[in-house]
Please model this.
Amino acid sequence: MDKAPSDAEHETQPAAPNADTSNGQDVNEHPLDALVPDPSDRPPLCGEPRFTEILEGMVADAAPRVFAVVQEYGDRVDARIAAWGMAFESHSEVVSVERGMRMSLQTPECARRGFAWGSHIHARLVWFNADAITSAEEDEAPDVAGPMPEQSFDEG
Model:
């Protein structure tokens, strides 16, 4: 029975840097490098800490606004988050929480149509508000549907 060659036998050693291959291309050169000028002869714009600060500002200025598409049952009877979206300057992207549905839309409001169900379930947009994040203690608060069983509201 023939023995299969090991992976090591198939490996090829790269040629020395700047060595030409049979097609005349540098071994270390990526095919897309032909389309992008080589920046190696240009100095950095600034130091790493300042560059990081510039990038953080760029990201903060261009960040999409985040929103949820909430399905509301009746008139504030119940609700659930059905999808999350990002509103960019030119369009919006929406992804359902249950997988399987992604939408690319002109505006966030267009997402509402895909999540309304008949006359009892309406969809609304809720923009993310970082100030509304609840703490762990608030997560333990009683359900708004009624008092917890051990509580009594009798005044006597």
Remarks:
- Helices lie at 7-10, 48-62, 136-139.
- DSSP finds three helices and five strands in the chain.
